[in-house]
Amino acid sequence: MNGTLTTGDISGATALGSIAATEKTVFDHIHSWLVTVDHKRLGLMYIIYALVFFVVAGIEASLIRIQLATPNNHFLSPQVFNQLFTMHGTTMVFLVGMPMIFGFANYLVPLMIGARDLAFPRLNAFGFWLSVFGGLLLYFSFIGGEGMTGAGSAPDVGWFAYAPLTGKAFSKGHSTDYWILGIMIGGFGSIATAANIITTILSMRCRGMTLAKMPLLAWLNLIMCGMVLIAVSPLTAAQIMLLLDRFAGSHFFDTQAGGSATLWMHFFWIFGHPEVFAQGHFRLPGHGRCDAGDRLRQPERLGPPHVHYRNDINRKYLFCHFDHDGRYSNGHQNLQLARNHVGWEAAL
């Protein structure tokens, strides 16, 4: 009242100032998520990223199904149908499947093995943003690309991008280049994240947790990441070879200059079968969740825990190996039959 400051006034003003200083704006929250290296936040961002592209892929699939609903339907032109087919398949495999499983692995693996974070937090963030940039670059092709016929925009060579359709003679413009670069950049991010998770599981388990005591879901994420390393690396090498064909004058897949179109098929399906048709994305981790649920519901039927645990690991590993080999050989037998049926031998 007399104009003098008391100790209570000073302490109250200090408290109000500290509260005002700690209040974060919306931009501060967004910035904290953009620059985070926390495995939980990155896991959630992976899952959100996958769900966004899942919606996009669903819209593309709906347009495809409308076109196929009735005979002689002209809802989509052939060029647009090829673009949607290519983008839907590519999105589901590369922008939904892998980010989704990496999101769960990012969030859960450190918690299951007692680690504070992944082994390389900055590499984890780098891998995520590489995947994001690859997906955005792929969809930027709708604006900056040009299709196989010169009238389209997005890639239209199929999500498998068989040679010789990806050659300069058959794929004019840059739509195929967007596909190659987008998937290749995303592949670098997947390789980085898979290597990070493997390193974390092998070297950062808590005291007393041996591999034989590790949760089954962590085991299956370890196998899944190993499959990603084995599968994505050949695809990345093939995409580099395809870029050299298109821009540097090499002839890896140019059949008229002595190259081999089947070489691309071998490279691609070395990736494709373990990654898509086998358990690379969902089946191995899904088995871990189902087995954990079975053990909680019916522990007496499953026998001693250590026997069940080892049998599960051996069964999943052998299942992974034989399922991959069987599908690989069957897939190429079917491919050979299809090629003979439609007369591709003349083109090859």
Short descriptors:
Cytochrome C Oxidase, Chain A; 11 helices; 348 residues; 0% strand; mainly alpha
Explain what the structure shows.
The protein is built from 11 helices and no strands. The chain has 348 residues and is an all-alpha fold. The chain has a domain at 109-346: Cytochrome C Oxidase, Chain A. α9 (261-277) runs antiparallel to α11 (305-342). It is globular and about 60 Å long.
Low-confidence stretches are 294-307, 323-348
CATH architectural arrangement of one domain: Up-down Bundle
End-to-end separation in angstroms reads 96 Å
Largest sheet: none
Helix-and-strand structural type: mainly alpha
Percentage of residues in strands:
under 5%
Using the coordinates shown, work out and report the CATH topology of one domain: Cytochrome C Oxidase, Chain A
Mean pLDDT: 79
Output the CATH class name of one domain: Mainly Alpha
Shape: globular
Helix content: over 70%
Determine Rg (CA atoms, Å). Answer: 25 Å
Q: CATH homologous superfamily of one domain, by name?
A: Cytochrome c oxidase-like, subunit I domain
Order of helices and strands: HHHHHHHHHHH
In total, how many beta strands?
A: 0
Helix count, DSSP H or I runs of 4 or more residues: 11
